[in-house]
Amino acid sequence: MQQNQATILSGANAIYVSELYARFATDPSSVDASWAEFFGQMGDDGRAVLAELKGPPWGRDGAKVIGAAAPDAAPAVAKKAGGLSVEELRRATTDSVRALMLIRAYRARGHVAANLDPLGLQDHSAAYAELDYKNFGFAEADLDRPIFIDNVLGLETATLRQIVEIVTATYCGTIGVEFTHIQDPAQKSWIQRRIESIHNQTQFSERGKLAILERLTEAEGLERFLQVKYTGTKRFGLDGAETLIPALEQILKRGSQLGLKEVVLGMAHRGRLNVLTNFMKKPFAQLFSEFQGNSAMPEDVQGSGDVKYHLGTSADRDFDGNTVHLSLTANPSHLEVVDPVALGKVRAKQQQLGDSGRTQAMGLVIHGDAAFAGQGIVAECFAMSQLEGYTTGGTIHFIVNNQIGFTTAPRYSRSGPYCTDVAKMVQAPIFHANADDPESVVHAARIATEFRQEFKADVVVDMVCYRRHGHNESDEPAFTQPLMYKKIAQLPPTRQIYAQQLVKEGVVTAEQADKMAADFQASLESDYQAAKSFKVNKADWLEGKWAGLGALNEEEEMREEKTGVAFEVLKDVGAGLTRFPDGFHVNPKIIRQLEAKKKMIETGQGIDWSTAEALAFGSLLVEGTPVRLSGQDSGRGTFSQRHSVLIDQEDERRFAPLSNLREGQARFEVIDSLLSEAGVLGFEYGYSLAEPRALVLWEAQFGDFANGAQVIIDQFLAAGEAKWLRMSGLVLLLPHGYEGQGAEHSSARLERYLQSCAEDNWQVCNFTTPANYFHALRRQVRRNFRKPLVLMTPKSLLRHKLCISPLADMSSQARFHRVLFDTAQLVPDDKVRRVILCSGKVYYDLFEERAKRNIKDVAIVRVEQLYPWPKDTVASQIRRYAGAELLWCQEEPGNMGAWTFVMPRLNFILEELNRGQRQAIYCGRAPSAAAATGVHHHHDEEQAKLVEQALTAPLGDMRQPFRRATRLGEYQYAAK
Ligand SMILES: Cc1ncc(C[n+]2csc(CCOP(=O)(O)OP(=O)(O)O)c2C)c(N)n1
Q1: How far apart, in whole angstroms, are the C-alpha atoms of residue 726 and residue 722?
Q2: Which of 377, 531, 593, 840 would be a feasible disulfide site paired with 285, CB 3.0-4.6 Å?
Q3: Structure pTM?
Q4: Quick check: CB of 780 below 6 Å from ligand 1?
Q5: What angle do CA 843, 844, 848 make, to 5 degrees?
Q6: Measured from the CB, is residue 270 less than 6 Å from ligand 1?
Q7: CA angle at residue 548 from 543 to 551, to 5 degrees?
Q8: Ligand 1: centre distance to CA 377 (Å)
Q9: Omega before 581 cis (within 30°)?
């Protein structure tokens, strides 16, 4: 029988049965009635099994699948193969197929019956019913009958009882695995093999068990200590989720064995203090000192600082001789928004390490269950995870799933069964594990780490736990979850549960476990005493890759950086911009553009915007500074202006001239991004944090779309340095300008950036010349400090005949200009009637109209850099035209653009200069709810009118947006 069993579903029999099934599938009447009945009873799963009898595609890779047939087996032998009658064969096949269906059901659905919830709030009855062997055509009487399963589960033959025991242990223990959604056969079979071979349990050594107990003791001990010493102070404790700490430890330990050298962490508030100290080894004394109200920064360092559960840190940890550098990214309270930032840092570190296999640096992101399910940026990160320009070779996502979000229960905070469902968008494997079984969580963390290192893909560990206290420690959870909290109150801490387990196993005595806890409390007590005199003696922001850079001081901001480039270099780089390999078929229209570029470089005249940009990039590259630009369609450029990647018209090969300038040049990366703003901007910001020596740029398709990344802009770019002492030199390219294309395609919302300007936090500019753009880009990486650069960038000016610069303006003697003076032939300065200050594209409208009308007594001064506000230079220009009236002209509506930013600053200058005119006057569009009209001829009329008014209308006639209050108290535009 054994021997017959062994041959039933292999070789020719398998082919015979599968062919029978194939015939049945096309025509049920074409097979014998008994087979038809058998096949007819099969559900979808059974049919899939039958269809796979010849060996499914993913089984061939190593996973042993029942009935994998030798490809050359001859079907003709089948009729009485193995000495069985057709009836016997049918019967045995029935058993085997059913058993296999059962096993498959557990693989796919076992997690629903797994014991995942320490609170035991889940009702498993439906899951048990779903997986009951009786659903698969078996009866109790079948339990002990041997069934041939052809080495699935590592057994050739097993009784139904054995099968059920094994799959229950493997798939329904305290770990539930979701992996059958994975389409990559190698990944799927790897997981199946990895977990089935050991029934999804690690046999930990005594040492391993003790280490878990120690980590749990520290995790719990810290929370307990804080609860006593700082009762009621917010700490967003880890109580109920302490198993996080041994799990993280495992990720590093296993990771370091598999080549990890750097791990970038991103995490939210929950348990952060525990992670900072127990995992990242921030001194406890420092933490206690912060609890006592002291700053996390040294006294001589300025800045706003931040609450302690937002702070980052870095550390080196040693695991069996392997050192891993850890850095926890500082983050704002906006949940999940740190995720792409951490990933961008990982990418930069991989670049620095030369880690092309992406096994040395990794992101480890810790999430809350409600935030993971609710915040869209999580999906954006998954969307980026396998893209060439953004992949980091997989992230380990660890979810502290305490089954609540503030006061909101899961049924209100997600639509799917699990908080992890979003991870299925990239077919990540998901390990759900019960935190009250620490060994299971540590085991899952280990497999997740191995998976990430093996497949360079994202993986999720969902640690199901609970939150012992309220959302923070002064919050009363029973207001909203009385039953849950009754249950929680009865639960012993995880440490206690595990200590008891180890006592039972004889690994420790109860006294040893208690002593471990007492010793830790004693050591915290001595750190607590030390905290009283703890001083942060050094800020850590200028270490590692930041060494040699410094903080900004005022002098430095005003210093004229040498950003010009020698003529020969410019010419050489310029020649490289138009070079491409022989036999590369460039689009004829682009050839024309390249020829025009060539002419610009050769003559040194008429350099346009994109050529200036390419010269800035190219000169930096040959000087050894890498350039990374990412944004939607940035390779070509939204306005078809950049063409930094040439595409062969016959085979779509790509060629980037900027990558081929010189031997030994730095790396140029231009990336067409996914259609995300927050995710991508966060990523590039993270990249810039880790790599201060590269020029990193993010480009919005149109400036207004950056509003989708507002959180990154407000909370990281504008305030990151002030809060966390973390500089960034990221450049934002934001197409802006009123050209009649409607609201979103006109305005990059300049006003929003200007509103956030303070403490020299960043630079906000709106240039009118390619040369200034060139210098600003170079200045960004040639200064001794880093500040984000927010640039309004042109659209129509990209092709405007006047928006050009001579090459000389980029050469060694040339430099950046914060303000551009009027150099036209006008009446003498003291006869100038009016000085119009403006910024950006409207300058050309004013300039051309002034020329057309032959006006000679109106000067136009361009404020190229709005922030830091070049007060002295602006004042010098106002002083220069001593008798002139002062006007600010802009094309944006009065409640937008730079007006409300410049107005008080101009008024201040007028006052200082003691001018008769004390109020700067506004000339521009009326305040408006939408950023621009969508009707083209309205746009044309408005634009013509504001230009005409600026040049000719008496000051008293100007439309003053905020002069008159209406009855409703609303400030309205007083139309004349
Ligand atoms: C984007 C965002 N919205 C709202 C909040 C306010 N908030 C802070 S914690 C929290 C609940 C988070 O729940 P979960 O992700 O499950 O983490 P837990 O606190 O339970 O660990 C909320 C709503 C926030 N910080 N960020």
Answers
A1: 8
A2: 531
A3: 0.92
A4: no
A5: 120
A6: yes
A7: 85
A8: 14
A9: no
Distance CA(333)–CA(584), nearest Å, equals 51
Q: What b/e sequence results for 766-802 when a residue is b if at least 16 CB atoms lie within 10 Å of its CB, and e otherwise?
A: bbbbbbbbbbbbbbbbebebbbbbbbbbbbebbebee
Span from the CA of 411 to the centroid of ligand 1 (angstroms): 16
Listing DSSP states for 721-769 in one string gives HHHH------EEEEE---SSS-STTT---HHHHHHT--TT--EEEE---
pLDDT of residue 62: 37
pLDDT, position 558: 66
Pocket lining: 371 vs ligand 1, CB cutoff 6 Å: yes
Measure 681 CA to ligand 1 centroid, in angstroms.
22
Name the residue type at position 542: L
Is the Cβ–Cβ distance between 434 and 116 less than 8 Å? yes
pLDDT digits 0-9 by tens, 57-109: 444 333 333 433 333 333 333 333 445 666 777 777 888 889 999 999 999 99
Which of 335, 464, 471 is the pocket-test mutation for ligand 1 (most atoms within 8 Å of CB)? Answer: 335
Report residue 372 as tokens.
Answer: 């993971």
Q: Which of 568, 526, 30, 595 is nearest to 288 (CA)?
A: 526
Strands 322-328 and 313-319: antiparallel
What is the pLDDT, as a whole number, of residue 294? Answer: 80
Q: Strand 921-925 vs strand 885-893: parallel, antiparallel, or unpaired?
A: parallel
3-state secondary structure 452-499: HHHHCCCEEEEEECCCCCCCCCCCCHHHCCHHHHHHHHHCCCHHHHHH
Listed residue (315, 190, 325) closest to 255, CA to CA: 325
Name the nearest CA neighbour of 912 among 884, 869, 955, 872. 872
238 lines ligand 1 (CB under 6 A): no
Structure confidence at residue 300 (pLDDT): 60
> What pLDDT is stored for residue 550 in this prediction?
85
Residues 6+ positions from 69 with CB-CB distance below 8 Å: 10, 11, 12, 14, 15, 18, 53, 54, 55
CA–CA separation, 507 and 33 (whole Å): 61
Closest atom of ligand 1 to 334 CA is 26
**Separation of alpha carbons 197 and 199, rounded Å:** 6
Task: Verify whether ligand 1 is closer than 6 Å to residue 735 (CB atom).
Answer: no
The CA distance from 439 to 580, in Å, is 59
Tokens representing 523 are 């050591």
Atom of ligand 1 nearest to the CA of 241: 21
Q: Is the CB of 334 under 6 A from ligand 1?
A: yes
| Residue carrying structure tokens 């969307």 | 383
Identity of the amino acid at 439: E
Residue 228: C-alpha distances to residues 136, 220, 223, 527 (Å): 56, 12, 9, 15
- Tallying the residues shown for the chain, one arrives at 976
- Percentage helix, strand, coil, to 5, in the chain? 45, 15, 40
Residue 697's identity, in one-letter code, is L
What pLDDT shows up at residue 3? 39
Q: Which amino acid is at 384?
A: M
CA 180 to chain centre: 26
Pick out the chain residues at pLDDT < 70. 1-16, 42-47, 49-86, 297-304, 308-309, 537-539, 554-559, 959-976
With beta carbons less than 8 A apart as the criterion, state whether 118 and 465 touch: yes
C-alpha of residue 370 to centroid of ligand 1, in Å? 7
Give the type of residue at 509.
T
* 626, two tokens: 């890498």
User: Considering only CA atoms, which residue is closest to atom 17 of ligand 1?
Assistant: 368
Count of CA atoms in the C-beta half-sphere (13 A) of 419:
31
Ligand 1 within 6 A of CB of 400:
yes
Letter for the amino acid at 636? R
| Cα–Cα dist 695/701, whole Å | 19
Q: Which two structure tokens, joined as six digits, stand for 911?
A: 């006052």
Q: What pLDDT is attached to residue 72?
A: 33
Q: Which two tokens stand for residue 451?
A: 């998976």
pLDDT of residue 13: 62
CA distance 783 to 488: 56
